[in-house]
Design goal:
The protein is of the alpha/beta class. The structure holds zinc ion.
Length: about 260
């Protein structure tokens, strides 16, 4: 049909967005991201980045899809829940039909101290979709040690928080929190215990994906500094601590306890 946009026009609306432009789009094509956990946050982030044309994605998750996921997790279907299909595999299959140009590397495993370095090998940014504090501290240690940017995100009920860490430039997770909550405390704080609202997940994932796009497009100056908390139900947005702590055991002292180093 004459005048109908074709595959060559796929990213035209993004390229029209002046801060990105055609150069930014070309940079995204050559970039790569690791998404740790492709549940609520991770599945939205992976879909957004795939549609945005980020060239290579690595997805890490050892969970299968279940029926409690479908109310908020992008990409998954009733058939996936019926069969308990591995999330990373189900996500990769969906992403392959969304954008043929994106290479997706599937790792059906959970990030641990002994595998996170190889998981993060060669990626330009790490995105937290883990819903797990120990994993976040592990990502933070690795990211600071390897000077790799990462974007933390978490959601329970309709409240979410997110922070982007640019090692050596911005506060890291341990500048803000000394250590993960005790396991018994974390259990009662989780979405699995107190519930979660789909739009809150999509909102935090969208912010994380936007920060990743800034980083991958080489626009670090646009990255948001500090911790951002959002409560979607009453519509409240709060800026919290964002300053680096010079005594931080991780980015100050360079002790990477969560990596076992
Ligand atoms: Zn720090």
């Amino acid at each position: 049909m004459a005048g109908r946009p074709s595959i060559a026009d796929r990213y035209v609306r993004q390229e029209q967005f002046a801060p990105l432009g055609a150069d930014g789009q070309a940079t995204l094509r050559d970039a790569s991201a690791l998404v740790i956990g492709v549940g609520g946050l991770g599945s939205w982030m992976a879909e957004i980045l795939t549609r945005a044309g980020v060239g290579r994605l690595r997805l890490a998750d050892d969970d299968g899809v279940d029926w409690t996921n479908l109310a908020r997790q992008a990409m998954y279907t009733e058939a996936d829940a019926d069969t308990g299909r591995e999330k990373a595999e189900a996500a990769a299959a969906r992403l392959a039909v969304i954008n043929r140009d994106v290479t997706v590397d599937v790792r059906c495993l959970r990030a641990r101290p002994d595998n996170i370095e190889s998981l993060a090998d060669g990626v330009d940014v790490i995105l937290d979709g883990s819903d797990d504090w120990r994993t976040r501290f592990l990502i933070n240690d690795l990211a600071v040690k390897m000077a790799r940017p990462w974007v933390w995100g978490g959601v329970v009920e309709c409240r979410g928080q997110t922070m982007t860490v640019l090692p050596g430039e911005t506060a890291c997770l341990r500048c803000v929190y000394d250590e993960p909550p005790a396991p018994e405390k974390e259990r009662v704080m989780k979405a699995a215990a107190i519930g979660v609202l789909g739009p809150a997940v999509a909102m935090i994932a969208s912010i994380q994906a936007a920060e990743a796009i800034k980083i991958l497009a080489g626009q670090r100056q646009a990255v948001r500094r500090g911790l951002w908390q959002i409560d979607l139900w009453p519509g409240e947005w709060r800026d919290l601590a964002g300053a680096r702590d010079t005594d931080c055991p991780c980015c100050g002292m360079r002790r990477f306890e969560h990596l076992g180093a």
